């Protein structure tokens, strides 16, 4: 990471000792609180794209911390604090994608309308699993806001995220509205309802995190709203999926995570360290027991 991306000079010498930093030519990851890291180590107006997937205030356990605030008001106030910092880090042409719970998103939506332009309200739809709701409609989606600082100047690579258009491609319909009739285009830009399966244990991309987002979802965001060489920030990096996808797509990235265990996973996943805190960093051993039709145990597979 170039020195210009750091908020202060002389760089590492000014870094809070509570913050750990690992980096290579394209990827920088921090262990620390995102508010501290963004205030102290990331300069304003440097970032092209931010993907923010914070804790949802639903009481989940994330490493050593519980995802629970004293009140909804306290949670929303905390969200406003990091959102304000995120917007300050974006370039004038930058974009911000924000996730949170369905319960909290209306508050963030209203606040962001006064701070930037919300271009799209996206629904990430997924299949259900586990115990089903019996007395209400179970939740099968999570909301995402797509925001820009300047609605007249931002990156949106529509051609890079096109998907198959089943009507034109499969039925081979002809578009007679054009001066010279021709077949409908076989691809289209996706709408604002995205279907991606949730990351599950048996998937190769799975890491030990309770709310890991699919690489395919992050890939669409990065392809649409950044270009090769651009800088991407994830202030709630978890197991650093955003950084992993950014690297694969030729982007630079900054990731911040406050839980030490997840930071270690990111360090190993991104090849930035083989040992940390005296611990060998190894992939999760995803061994499972295969059972036959009668429920008897079969051989172990990984």
From TrEMBL:
Residues 47-265 form the DNA methylase N-4/N-6 domain. One of its GO terms (biological process) is methylation. PROSITE patterns: N6_MTASE. InterPro entries: DNA_methylase_N4/N6, DNA_methylase_N6_adenine_CS, RM_Methyltransferase, SAM-dependent_MTases_sf. It is an enzyme of class 2 (transferase). One of its GO terms (molecular function) is DNA binding. Its EC number is 2.1.1.-. It comes from the Bacteria. Keywords: Methyltransferase, Transferase. Gene3D superfamilies: Vaccinia Virus protein VP39. Belongs to the N(4)/N(6)-methyltransferase family. This is Methyltransferase. It comes from Singulisphaera acidiphila (strain ATCC BAA-1392 / DSM 18658 / VKM B-2454 / MOB10).
């Amino acid at each position: 990471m170039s020195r210009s991306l750091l908020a202060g000079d002389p760089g590492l010498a000014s870094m809070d000792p509570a913050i750990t930093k690992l980096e290579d030519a394209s990827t920088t990851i921090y262990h620390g609180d995102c508010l501290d890291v963004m205030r102290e180590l990331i300069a304003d107006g440097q970032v092209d794209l931010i993907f923010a997937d914070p804790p949802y205030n639903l009481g989940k356990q994330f490493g050593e911390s519980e995802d629970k605030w004293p009140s909804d008001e306290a949670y929303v106030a905390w969200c406003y604090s990091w959102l304000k910092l995120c917007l300050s880090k974006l370039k004038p042409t930058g974009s911000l994608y924000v996730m949170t719970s369905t319960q909290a998103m209306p508050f963030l939506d209203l606040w962001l309308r006064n701070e930037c332009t919300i271009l799209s309200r996206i629904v990430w739809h997924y299949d259900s699993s586990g115990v089903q709701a019996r007395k209400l409609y179970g939740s099968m989606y999570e909301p995402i806001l797509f925001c820009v600082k300047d609605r007249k100047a931002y990156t949106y690579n529509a051609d890079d995220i096109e998907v198959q258009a089943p009507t034109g491609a499969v039925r081979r319909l002809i578009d007679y509205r054009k001066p010279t009739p021709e077949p409908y285009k076989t691809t289209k830009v996706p709408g604002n309802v995205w279907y991606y399966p949730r990351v599950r244990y048996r998937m190769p991309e799975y890491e030990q995190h309770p709310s890991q987002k699919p690489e395919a979802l992050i890939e669409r965001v990065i392809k649409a709203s950044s270009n090769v060489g651009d800088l991407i920030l994830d202030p709630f990096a978890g197991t650093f999926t955003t950084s992993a996808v950014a690297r694969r797509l030729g982007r630079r990235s900054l990731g911040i995570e406050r839980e030490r265990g997840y930071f270690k996973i990111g360090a190993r996943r991104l090849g930035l360290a083989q040992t940390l805190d005296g611990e060998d960093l190894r992939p999760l051993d995803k061994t499972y027991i295969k059972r036959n039709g009668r429920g008897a145990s079969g051989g172990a597979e990984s």
